[in-house]
Amino acid sequence: MTRKQAVALEYGLNSAPVLTAKGDADVAEDIIAEARRRGVYVAEDPQLLALLSRLELGEEIPPQLYTAVAVVLSWAYWLKGMRPGDEKNL
User: Fold this and answer.
1) What is the CATH number of the domain that holds 31?
2) 29-55 tens-digit pLDDT
3) What is the total count of domains within the chain?
4) N or C: which end of the chain has fewer CB within 10 A?
5) Which residue has the higher pLDDT, 83 or 32?
6) What is the 8-class DSSP label of residue 63?
7) Quick one: pLDDT at residue 3?
8) Residue 35 has what pLDDT?
9) What is the pTM of this model?
10) Do 52 and 19 meet the contact criterion of CB atoms below 8 Å apart?
11) Which residue, among 18, 79, 12, 15, has the nearest Cα to 43 in the 3D structure?
């Protein structure tokens, strides 16, 4: 059985997405539950999770992950009917 892990990113007003939460087991479940409660898209990508979980809290994602994170963000924007930049008007 694999252990549950989760990370959270914040982009919005930052120049690059920033790691805002990460955890295993119960903490991971709490991160996912809070994201869903707030209507935040939850992606399941084990490879991206493994890379993002190496970051420290408050750290911007490295340029090598821009494309992978951009794919997830574009999907999340599409699901919410938003376009990049719309978050600045929220």
Assistant:
1) 3.40.1690.10
2) 999 999 999 988 899 999 999 999 999
3) 1
4) N
5) 32
6) G
7) 78
8) 94
9) 0.80
10) yes
11) 79
